[in-house]
């Protein structure tokens, strides 16, 4: 009985050491940059400035791994998620963490229980944690940006009425608004100042922060840049449109609340029943976790629950 626990504890300690090692390696680059910034120099050449403003878009610091990851489409999707979430990690780092957590956690569960299905379930759950964390931060950041966008449009409209240029109006938004809106507008202004064409800068903006309302703003700016027009009036109309879309979204959310709650109940009910039965009669569910047949049924139930929950969410999600 003590041997599986000892193995599990050893594996957990190994995972902790690996994570600490990876974090230390990643922070070493930040320490090097901090030391360079502290080093006062009398003159900085143009080449050094250009080297500092270039973004390192590599998927991994390892050239061999970077060569492989750049040719995998799903890794490029993960890279866009990381950029949108503003997470200080590369896709290669996230993939390595997922593989380590999945492999070590799955092996620990297998040695502790003796069943491969338990190792698969635990390994899949632990391996998905780094990606789930990125998705959660990305979703939270995008939701905050969507709420700030109407105010940003109003601020830009007022700046244009005061006689400022488009770049200056965007700079005012970058300086006055909190993140993430201020951060995203600041990056766009910096790209324009460095000589990037406005079409490319706006395209990069929408790639960093995918948002339907932002697409409307970018399309209006590019059309005004190509054919002319009253950008102030356009921004005012866009701001009103975005606020009306928020009103409709709130109404749709209230109408689909029952379906969304049903999905949550379906997902939580089996877990709650399992916990309650385990507390009332601990031996009742032992065959479900200690036998091969029980583990297969548990895996099938987990997959079915996940599919059902995601399907209900898709049905209740109205696009307009």
Please describe what this structure looks like.
By secondary structure, the protein is an all-alpha fold. It has three domains: 2-29 and 58-127; 140-254, Receptor-associated Protein (Up-down Bundle); 256-316. Helix content is 82%, strand content 0%. The protein has 15 helices and no strands. The chain has helices spanning 2-38, 46-53, 63-69, 73-85, 91-113, 116-127, 129-161, 166-176, 181-193, 198-208, 212-227, 231-255, 257-280, 286-290, 292-316. The longest helix has 37 residues, at 2-38.
- For the terminal residues, how far apart are their CA atoms? 58 Å
Shape: elongated
Any guess at the CATH architecture of the largest domain? Answer: Up-down Bundle
Overall pLDDT metric: 79
Number of helices: 15
CATH topology of the largest domain: Receptor-associated Protein
- Element-by-element helix/strand order: HHHHHHHHHHHHHHH
Rg calc: 25 Å
Beta-strand percentage?
A: under 5%
Compute the number of strand runs: 0
Structural class by helix and strand composition: mainly alpha
Q: Note poorly predicted spans.
A: 1-7, 27-33, 35-54
- Percent helix range: over 70%
CATH classification class of the largest domain: Mainly Alpha
What is the strand and helix layout of this fold?
Elements: H1 2-38, H2 46-53, H3 63-69, H4 73-85, H5 91-113, H6 116-127, H7 129-161, H8 166-176, H9 181-193, H10 198-208, H11 212-227, H12 231-255, H13 257-280, H14 286-290, H15 292-316
Helix pairs in contact: 1-5, 4-7, 5-6, 6-15, 7-8, 7-12, 8-9, 9-10, 10-11, 11-12, 13-15
């Amino acid at each position: 009985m003590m041997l599986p626990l000892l193995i599990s504890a050893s594996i957990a300690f190994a995972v902790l050491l690996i994570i600490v090692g990876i974090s230390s390696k990643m922070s070493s680059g930040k320490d090097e940059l901090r030391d360079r910034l502290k080093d006062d120099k009398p003159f900085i050449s143009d080449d050094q400035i250009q080297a500092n403003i270039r973004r390192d878009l590599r998927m991994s610091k390892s050239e061999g791994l970077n060569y492989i990851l750049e040719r995998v489409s799903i890794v490029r999707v993960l890279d866009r998620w990381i950029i949108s979430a503003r997470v200080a990690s590369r896709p290669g780092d996230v993939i390595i963490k997922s593989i380590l957590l999945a492999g070590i956690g799955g092996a620990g569960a297998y040695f502790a229980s003796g069943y491969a299905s338990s190792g698969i379930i635990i390994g899949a759950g632990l391996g998905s944690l780094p990606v789930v964390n990125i998705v959660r931060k990305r979703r939270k950041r995008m939701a905050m940006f969507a709420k700030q966008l109407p105010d940003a449009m109003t601020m830009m409209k007022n700046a244009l009425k005061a006689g400022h240029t488009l770049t200056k109006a965007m700079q005012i938004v970058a300086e006055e608004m909190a993140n993430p809106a201020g951060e995203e507008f600041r990056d766009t202004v910096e790209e324009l100042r460095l000589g990037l064409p406005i079409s490319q800068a706006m395209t990069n903006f929408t790639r960093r922060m995918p948002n339907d309302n932002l697409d409307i703003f970018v399309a209006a700016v590019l059309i005004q840049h190509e054919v002319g027009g009253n950008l102030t009036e356009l921004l005012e109309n866009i701001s009103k449109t975005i606020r009306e879309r928020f009103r409709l979204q709130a109404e749709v959310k209230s109408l689909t609340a029952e379906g969304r709650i049903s999905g949550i109940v379906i997902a939580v009910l089996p877990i709650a029943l399992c916990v309650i039965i385990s507390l009332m009669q601990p031996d009742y569910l032992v065959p479900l976790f200690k036998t091969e047949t029980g583990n297969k049924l548990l895996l099938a139930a987990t997959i079915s629950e996940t599919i059902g929950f995601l399907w209900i969410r898709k049905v209740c999600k109205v696009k307009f």
